[in-house]
Structures are given as structure tokens and as C-alpha cells.
């Protein structure tokens, strides 16, 4: 898939039925992918050794390095994760309807705590900041708080710079997008806040219970995870490329029941600590 602009990239993803929902297409159009990629020199070469230009790299359906052994995922992976996110809100639309009757406690909380948003999303390993912008635009007409957590300070700064370049400064200033430095492997606990959606952009060795605990009910966790039955698993979490991985969609239902679905095979960088990430090969 070789597109020459953000618009033609999104159109190609729709044509190939990777984008399943108009809301996902609009969210990806809302975020100009090239503003979240490193600048490539005019003599950059593609994987076949041919000289390329920036646009060919920005809009190709492939992951790109953003520094510090991190990448911005391929566009099709962003689209798939946004599909899964949007479908959670569709399936539980009664919980997010502005017309539903609000309890007196909810109204009191709105008056007392302006930080409590109707929709809260956590993006772990937010990297370039691209999905923060997409998540903020995914649910039209709903006030959404999106928190990105990244353990490398330079990537935190870069994500904020990217969002500003992509005309998201107002969302940052209003606190509707927040990028923080921290180890996201245990999520991000702030008071009693829980999340409607948690997305993890790196592969975990096992399904983290702490992230499930931080979901609302209903809530959804989207996370790549090492396959439990993989014969090539080792204790070396610096080398995920030799492991089989699955993209898991974990739903916490209103009654607290947890349902885990294996959606597809994937390949992601590992969910690890800052020190180990900086020495990955």
C-alpha cells in the first residue's frame, strides 16, 4: 500500500476494508501521519535499497522508527486498533449516551471534580503521540480525556511537539490530552480514576492483571501479548522478534466478567523498562 498523502492512505485503508467504520476514518484524517514521523533525508533508502522520498516513507503501510528503539506502528495496525476501540463504544453505547439518566452522585462529581470525564482512555507506550490524537477524535460529541504514558523523556517531549505541530495544542492546554513520563507496565493510577479503554503499544510477556483492574465496567483493553503456547518463548524480554505474539482484546463487562479474545497474530517491540529499551538491538 503506497499512498502519497494522508487522505489517500486513509482511502486505501477503507478500500481494502481495513478501516471498518467512518468514525475511524475521520479520526485518522484528523491526524496527519507525517507530523508524527521523524524527518527523513532526501537520500533515505527504502528496504529494497532504492532511494526514496519522505512522502513514500510516511504513507507506506509499514512501521517507522521514531528513535530510542521505538516505532510508529504501520497504518493498518493503527486502523485495526481504532476499529476495536470504536466497536467497544458502539457495543456499550447505552453507557455513553448523553440521554441516559445521570445519578445525583454523577452530577455532584461533575460539579466537584472537573477532571472527571465521561470517556477516559489510557495509551501505554504512546511513542509518537499519533494515537493520542486519533483517540481524542474517535467519539464525536463526547468529551474525552486521553492520557499517554511513555517512559523515555525525549519521546514524551517529542510526542507533545508532534501534537502541537498537528494543531492539537488546544487539547493539550485544556488537559484533554496529557502526555506523562512513567513506566506504563502497571498502568497509570491517579486517585480512583478508571479507564473506558486502555491501549498498549508494545508486547507484554503476559496479560497484566493491574491493567484489567484499572478498567471501568464496561471497559476494554487492547494489548499485544506473547502467546502462552509458544514453544519459542524465553525469559529474554529484549528479543520479542523470536516470539509468537497475539493481539488480545480484553473486555470487562458491567457485571465484572472478563472475556479475552485473540484477534490476530502481530509483531511488536517488547513492553519493557526504560533501561532495557535503550539497549535493544
Characterise the protein shown here.
This protein is an alpha/beta fold and 281 residues long. It contains 11 helices and 9 strands. It has helices at 6-15, 22-29, 54-58, 75-91, 93-96, 104-112, 130-138, 153-165, 169-173, 209-213, 274-278, and strands at residues 64-67, 70-72, 119-124, 144-150, 177-181, 195-200, 215-226, 245-252, 258-266. The strands form 2 sheets. The protein has a 7-stranded mixed beta sheet. A two-stranded antiparallel sheet has the order 1-2. Helix 7 links the parallel strand 3 (119-124) and strand 4 (144-150). Helix 2 packs across helix 4 and helix 2 crosses helix 7. It is globular. The two termini are 27 Å apart.
Summarize the structure.
The protein is of the alpha/beta class.
Spell out the key features of this protein.
single chain; alpha/beta; seven-stranded mixed beta sheet; two-stranded antiparallel sheet; 11 helices
